[in-house]
Amino acid sequence: MTLLTTVFAAFICTIIWYKNAPKSEMKVGILCWMFWGASLMWLVDAIFEYAELGAAYFTPAPVDMLNDLFLGLSVVALGLIIWLVILLIKDPKGVIKTALFKKKTQ
Amino acid sequence: MACFLVPAAEAVITTVAAKVIKSKEKEQTISVSMPDGTVAEVTKTPFSTKLGWLNKLLWGGSALLAFEHVWHGEVVPFFPFLTAVKNGETSEMLAEMGSAGVMMAVLVTAAWAGMLAVSALIEKRSLRETAPAKEEA
Predict the structure, then answer these.
(1) What sign does the dihedral A93-A96-A101-A102 (CA atoms) show?
(2) How many Å apart are CA A61 and CA A68, to the nearest integer?
(3) Which stretches within B1-137 are classed as H helix?
(4) Which range of residues forms the domain containing residue A33?
């Protein structure tokens, strides 16, 4: 469930990135890299778990599924926080800079 | 247990490598045909930028996986930081890092290598399309 949640997040971010490309004002690319990287790593985890459990891997207990979904959503939230921090620090549209420094009126 | 440490270690190495390569690289300008049919002078994406794609995949993935390990209580915010080390399961942890961790690093690097191959193909195709367009002009 964590893998699925992250893969869907990666898909959505990639579509948003492609739709706005070549402009990257919102730095959505950061989210794409982050979610795809995590998805690939969790895919390896899933393969190892499948090798251990066999077909039982695809029939998890509802409580485990719920916990994994909760974890997946938390991971997406963390990814969004990291992206927001980078966006505000890099400030590609200069919004923070404009808010901090006001032009002196003559 | 601590599998994310392997791709994180790779990320440190590739980040340093990208910085070193970037300092030695020179800008390469080429002519390519654009989707609207015009020929434009563009800068070729340098290798350090392409290595940056791998960095982002590795750092992003490792960060989110580290969070998952904190969630499962495998990483703790106090010394020795890894529950496996605290419980005397260091050998199991190292075995997991050697199997799942290494596989994670290999898969991410393989995906990046695939991206490099595709981008090289796109670059080659654009250059091939540009040659007749330039001759016509």
Answers:
(1) positive
(2) 11
(3) 5-24, 47-71, 83-86, 90-96, 102-136
(4) 2-100
- What backbone phi and psi angles, to 5 degrees, belong to A26? -95, 0
The number of distinct structural domains making up chain A is 1
Contact indicator for A75, A5 with CB cutoff of 8 Å: yes
Query: The tokens of B26 are what?
Result: 């020179």
A106 belongs to a structural domain: no
Contact A38 B64 (CB under 8 A): yes
Q: Look at residue A45 and tell me if it is in a domain.
A: yes
Answer yes or no: do A75 and B3 touch at CB < 8 A: no
Query: What is the Cα Rg of chain A in Å?
Result: 19
Cβ–Cβ under 8 Å, residues A37 and A66: no
Q: Is residue B60's pLDDT more than 90?
A: yes
B52 and chain A in contact, CB less than 8 A: no
User: What pLDDT digit, counting tens, does each position of B14-55 carry?
Assistant: 999 999 999 998 887 877 777 777 777 888 889 999 999 999
